[in-house]
Specification:
With 269 residues, this protein is α+β, with helices and mostly antiparallel strands. It has two domains: 44 residues; 212 residues, Sandwich (Immunoglobulin-like). 16% of the residues lie in helices and 32% in strands. It has two helices and 14 strands, in the order H-H-E-E-E-E-E-E-E-E-E-E-E-E-E-E. Strands 1, 3, 6, 7, 8, 9, 12, 13 and 14 form a nine-stranded mixed beta sheet that branches.
Length: 269
């Protein structure tokens, strides 16, 4: 009888073998349990029921990117008001609306921000402190449930832009540049408009070809994921308003779990 066979006949060997089997069983159980938890986290983060949808009309006449609120092209779409996320009822949150249009070449976005006390200190491109000014934000992602990467645009009231790629873990890469993006900022003072609007307007024309990170073929999509938000500074501090509430402990507009769906309507027959 060999040495190995002699060892295997010892009572202690049986205890050792049972211990190994028990440890492997525990590890298998923990692995399966971890997969279940991960699946539930992914489902809750990326497959939320009730995510808002926004239908984006097709336009045969592209709006001029000039900040003019009376541009007839914008009359084809209904403004959508962002919702306040500030819990303090005494905290003043000024109104913000968005309008969207699209055609075969671009996505057109207009922010109209009511603001009687504009704060704008950043004066350069890709400044990471744009969000410390009065600013608006736009986030776009592929039309998938589990978002791995998105792109962000943060624009202060002066029109200074921070654009970046954003991973699901919220790591920002400012090296991404939409080369053909058109952007304008326009301020409206008291008495300038008959409707009483005072504040600023941000308009963007984003070519589909600049969104190849999201659209490999660079063509107009039928759907995208996205979100819109605004930071408004006043005497009481900073207020956040948003289109799709991320419903997380910390209201982070960049959180892809909170992105809604943009549905791009086809041209009229």
């Amino acid at each position: 009888m060999g040495l190995l066979e002699s060892i295997m006949r010892l009572p202690s060997w049986n205890c050792f073998r049972r211990g190994i089997v028990w440890i492997l069983s525990v590890l298998l159980f923990l692995s399966i349990f971890g997969l279940i938890l991960t699946s539930k986290r992914i489902q809750s983060a990326d497959d939320r029921s009730g995510s808002p949808q926004l239908h984006v009309p097709f336009t045969s006449t592209a709006p001029l990117t000039d900040g003019n609120l009376d541009n007839p092209s914008w009359g084809k779409t209904t403004p959508v008001e962002l919702s306040r996320l500030t819990s303090d009822p005494e905290f003043t949150v000024e109104k913000t609306t968005i309008r969207l249009l699209h055609d075969a070449n671009c996505l057109y976005v207009q922010f109209q921000a009511w603001d009687t006390d504009i704060r704008q200190t950043v004066r350069q491109h890709d400044d990471l402190y744009v969000h410390m000014d009065d600013c608006v934000e736009l986030f776009l992602a592929p039309p998938v449930q589990q978002i791995i990467e998105s792109v962000g645009f943060e624009i202060n009231a002066r029109g200074d832009l921070l654009d970046y790629r954003l991973r699901a873990d919220e790591f920002i890469n400012v090296g991404w540049e939409p080369r053909h993006l058109r952007l304008v900022s326009r301020h409206y003072a008291a008495g300038e408009r008959t409707d009483g609007f005072v504040g600023y307007v941000i308009e963007l024309a984003i070519p589909w070809s600049d969104l190849k990170r999201l659209l490999p073929d660079g063509k107009a999509p039928s759907r995208l994921r996205g979100n819109f938000s605004r930071y408004d500074y006043g005497k009481q501090g900073r207020a956040l308003s948003i289109w799709s509430d991320p419903q997380s402990r910390f209201h982070t507009p960049t959180n892809p779990a909170g992105y809604g769906w943009l549905i791009f309507d086809p041209p009229a027959p």
